[in-house]
Specification:
five-stranded parallel β-sheet, alpha/beta, two-stranded antiparallel ribbon
């Protein structure tokens, strides 16, 4: 049985500031929303494509952080990845809005 892990945006920001490269941030929102605004360095894998793309796009040894439109979408993405055998997966609590609230780096057309 897998447990949904929720990561704090401050922990992710600290990891980025310390230059810890062994993680991946995935944005599971649709592509146009991703293009509009996203966490800097996040990769786009829309939730509908996650199951088909995860095996070839993601490294199993890396910590994976996931965020989406809302926490329930993020939690579904985490459960999908866990089902596929990814064990170091965490939902980024509060998603992009929480990230922006701590002045985390963002990119996109909305910047």
């Amino acid at each position: 049985m897998s447990i949904d892990l929720v990561a704090d945006v401050n922990d992710l920001k600290t990891s980025l500031q310390w230059g810890q490269p062994a993680f991946t941030v995935i944005d599971v929102r649709d592509r146009s929303t991703y293009n509009h605004s996203r966490i800097t360095g996040a990769i786009s894998i829309p939730l509908n494509d996650l199951e088909s793309r995860a095996q070839t796009s993601l490294h199993r040894q890396r910590q994976i952080y996931v965020y989406g439109e809302n926490d329930s979408q993020s939690a579904l993405a985490v459960r999908t990845l866990q089902f596929l055998g990814f064990t170091t997966v965490a939902e980024l609590g509060g998603g992009l809005e929480a990230w922006k609230s701590i002045n985390g780096a963002t990119e996109g057309t909305d910047i």
